[in-house]
Write a structure and sequence with these properties.
mainly beta
């Protein structure tokens, strides 16, 4: 049977780490270059990654500005609010690695 895949890979810099009871959220910035009117422009895309278990433990050791590599699966979600269905997309990490610490986080 064929395997269906919905996964992501992000290499970027940590903007913040938000540990909760059983989950850690990490904001990771990745840059995208595009041409506008013949000029190159760099846009920053912020990605909110959800980490559980060991992945959350690794994520909590990352600091603002650290370069990280994150892979995982894309999960579509929905819930009801005031009679309307709200749709979202979660990035659930399977792996989380710090590639390079920022100067502010080196001890």
């Amino acid at each position: 049977m064929p395997r269906n895949i919905a996964e992501f890979r992000i290499i970027g810099q940590v903007g913040g780490v938000d540990p909760k009871d059983k989950v850690t959220y990490v904001n990771v910035a990745s840059n995208y270059n595009r041409q506008v009117d013949g000029e190159w422009q760099e846009d920053t895309h912020w990605n909110r990654v959800t980490c559980f278990g060991k992945c959350a433990e690794y994520a909590q050791k990352a600091g603002k500005g650290d370069m990280v590599h994150v892979t995982g699966r894309i999960k579509q979600t929905s819930y009801e609010r005031e009679g309307a269905t709200i749709y979202g997309t979660d990035l659930v990490a399977d792996t989380f690695s710090v590639l390079n610490r920022s100067g502010a986080n080196e001890a």
